[in-house]
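Case study 2.
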Amino acid sequence: MHFGYQKGFWIFRFRGKQFSIKISEVLCILAGVILFFAVEASGRTDPLRDGYIRRNEYGKGEEEIVLIAEGAGYGNQGIEIVFPVEERRYTDEQTKKELAELKERLWDVISGDNGSVNQVRTKLNLISKDSKTGFYIRWSSTPAGIIDYDGEICAESLQTDQGQQVILTAEVSDGYGTSEQISIPVQVFLPLLSVEEKQRKELTEEIRRREKQNRTEEGFYLPKEYKGNALSYHSRNETDSIWLLLIGPLLVILLRARSADQKKQLKKNREKKLLLDYSEVVSKLQIFLGAGMTVRTAWERIVLDYQKLQENGEEERPAYEEMLQTYYQIRSGTAEGKAYAEFGRRCMLQPYLKLAGLLEQNRKTGTKNFRYLLQAEMTDAFEQRKNLARRQGEEAATKLLIPLFLMLGVVMVIVVVPAFLTFF
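Prediction:
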């Protein structure tokens, strides 16, 4: 057996036969083998292998276990068993120890941003469960109404800033029948207000006082001054008017995008019309040249016929407009070869560039073989026109699919919704 490496393949030869395998395929096989051994290794440490199940630690909650009991059931196929395993519980001694530690920690835990329970001015951190022990805590306060269940201070219930003592009672339970009450006295003060908050509070109280004094009147006047400063009022707008400044630039962007899209669409339509007219232009040139006219005379005849049709109200056609401009260039003294070359560049399409090249070649080499070349070009032009018409038909058919899909969606809704309503 021989093996080797060649251009990303391992080559094996055995008893005259050759086998090859990609390096990426080898890596995939190795990854599968490694994953298999990793799963096997983790399975060996599975506590179910030796019949021992570990509980969640204190406070982590119970866990549902799903296991297969091999050797039981019909034909020893195994029985699937699902049962909950409760979290680990404390012994009585451990419960007393953890409660004692919680009493010491609870003072600092609930103080929050106050620093100490002896001077409470902001929200207290009244936790409902201790993350360390998993014990549940339910709070109550005496007198009620000063500190709510969430630890917020009700400033309206405090008459002065001298402070008021509130007894917080924490009923701590391990969730299995053991509970104990912990009382924590806290000294509650009015929250410290900033200058703006004080001004807002004073003005609000004055406005409320005036409103109460004039309950029987149609209305009341707001204060006209505050600490010697004249006041004026206005309603707060529900919407932020600064966003209106973005409307102008947004409209500019949309208009530019629309203008660019229109230019692109106009260019696309012009190219379609040029391609559709190309076979007709070549055909007319072929007919007039076959009648003995020169290229210039045939060009002039085509242009003059187009002008007559324009006078009768026919739609403007890009190919003949470009021929008309070339005709005026020649009449104003521009060389025919240069005028034909510019005609091809203005049209910016390969067929017209090719036609301009044929006309320039005819001026240099004479009319020999020109009619045959023009005949071949006319055949190609008609073939291109057929392909273009076929492509436009396919595009139209594709656009028609959109309303068909919309109608299908409506039909699906009409059929499915009553079925669901009947089912539920």
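The CA atoms of residues 231 and 324 lie 77 Å apart.
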